[in-house]
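Following up on my earlier thread - several people asked me to post the actual chain instead of describing it. Fair enough. Here it is, all 242 residues.
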Amino acid sequence: MRGLYKTDYKEAVLAVSRHSDPFFRKTYEPGCTFPVMYIRWFMLAAFILSALVILGGCTSTISSSIPQATPITSQPAQSGRQPVQPAASSGVLTLSVDSLNPGAVLPDVYTCKGASKSPEVSWNNIPAGAKSLVLILDDPDAPAGTFTHWLVYNIPPGSGEFAQGQPNVKVLSNDAQQGESSTGSRGYFPPCPPVGSPHRYIFHLYAADINLALPTADRAAIDQALTGHILAKTEFITTFKR
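Reply from S.P.:
Thanks for posting it. Predicted structure:
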């Protein structure tokens, strides 16, 4: 048996050395009948497989340990300028007539006994959101019912006052419009009650949230247009008799 092994070994070495392919000669070693090349391939495959398993485990561990990024929500750009809000009034809407106290007698200069001029009228504390003012002078004690003596509408809120003696024109210098009195005439109609007891002459001021789209107007049209649009109102009462 031992001699047979030696003979086989020698024949294997001789066969390898005589083989014409150098690669074949390098893949066989004397004393081993199993090709060394196959062993090397097997070891290489096992190494690659082990490396893949190790790397796969590390990758999953690293991925799970990395905190997830918080998505960034896009916010609309903010303008540097904020809308300007109307300033609110610091008090109640007020109305003044000339230098009179409420309830005072209207001077003759503003009546049919005098120059029949319209009086000086001023106002304060216009409410925020007011687009126009309306001024009305009437006599609730007139024999035939309330008599309108003066009607002015679409008064700019910032104008502040009317000077004495406004002309009887459709559009005044501050762009306010004059409507019709109870006589049908435009502008100021002076108080001129029947001889006897005094009448009340009431100045009404309304702050409206709109401009009244009326090319011309009487009291009924103004009252209707103001419905639902009055932000504030006030009045100033005077008296007069003949």
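The first strand starts at residue 94 and ends at 97. That should answer part of your original question.
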